[in-house]
Task: structure prediction
Amino acid sequence: MQDLKLISASAKDVDTINRLAILIWNQYYIDIISQNQINYMLDLMYSPKNLSEKIINKNEDFYLIQKQNNYIGFLSVQNKKENSWFLNKFYINQDFASSGFGSKILNELKEMLSIEKLRLTVNRQNFKSINFYFKNGFKIDHVEDFDIGNGFVMNDFVMLWENKKY
Result:
């Protein structure tokens, strides 16, 4: 991947992930959900306290995406069962959108973890990301709505990628 790297994150990277989440969510989601929901979800999922708990308790494996010496995004995954994973988070600074970096990182992740199945959820109004996942071999598995509290609901597609080699 030349100057693009996927680096395992630890508790020392919480502030970096938090800053990236605030930047990227405010760049991207303002056209999809309200600013109030963005603020609520950032606090719910990306506060330093919540990120620390997830990393320390190994609830999710976090990775930073580095281009040259700059962090441009992050992702997190959970191993659900042997070689079957859930992609919880996958965010790249919009300054690097449509650069091919997302596909490169996704392929690197699949190879690094020997992933046979990868599931994710994506907002049904997030057409750009849905098309990205279609381009990378995902299919819509089903539709699901998640009550996340404070009067907010996530209206998502659950998408699935399966390695056809296995």
